[in-house]
Amino acid sequence: MVLQRVFRAVIMGPPGSGKGTVSGRIIKTFGLTHISSGDILRNNINAKTELGLLMKACIDQGQLLPDDVMARLILNDLRTLGNTSWLLDGFPRTILQAEALDNAYSVDSRLSSRWTHTASGRVYNIDFNPPKVPGLDDVTGEPLVQRDDDTPHTVTRRLKAYENQTEPVLEYYRSKGVLETFSGTETNQIWPHIESFLHRKLSIHSKKVA
Ligand code: ATP
Ligand code: MG
């Protein structure tokens, strides 16, 4: 008999990198529960909850919300899931958040994405092929992603927040030996690699606890 233990993973990547699309495919293919911090916050804003009203200005300016607020919000959500396999998207975003998560759960895998968003048909990569102005299409000057918090100014802030606050989290996970990085220029090119990695990972994972 194969005992299926829960599988817990974190997906990371710069704003507009296609994380949302890949997360969707992962949860559909592997049946993990998707926890997206951005979606939870946007739901709070739409429902005009106290948290949503309090945090909207901060989000619209492209700033990260306080670590203690985020940690409480996400860890509470994870607690209600109990013994379910999950994929965390958008959290942790800072070393402090990563430590808060580690104190509560042992995470099995961190997937880092560096593939790029192609809404305009053009391809950028923050590391080796960045747009001339961060977050803006080179030709039209338009933002690369379209959302309430996607004004050029805010996109720049979010990309800076990723570089300054979230990239150190990648190093944190790399030093723990649990980081898996996928690079490429579009989601369809990267997806097969992620899929076969997770197939391998999940089958080893269930054999180990069989
Ligand atoms: P994309 O989803 O397109 O990759 P993104 O990652 O910049 O873009 P979200 O994850 O949707 O955006 O988050 C939107 C905003 O919500 C962030 O800019 C930030 O203000 C806030 N936020 C989301 N998650 C966190 C977090 N873990 N810590 C602090 N702030 C957060
Ligand atoms: Mg997101």
From TrEMBL:
It is found in: Mitochondrion matrix. Belongs to the adenylate kinase family. AK3 subfamily. This is GTP:AMP phosphotransferase AK3, mitochondrial. It catalyses: a ribonucleoside 5'-triphosphate + AMP = a ribonucleoside 5'-diphosphate + ADP; GTP + AMP = GDP + ADP. Pfam families: ADK (PF00406), ADK_lid (PF05191). GTP binds at residues 16-21, 114, 123-124, 187. Residues 113-150 are annotated as: LID. Keywords: GTP-binding, Kinase, Mitochondrion, Nucleotide-binding, Transferase. AMP binds at residues 37, 42, 63-65, 90-93, 97, 147, 158. Monomer.
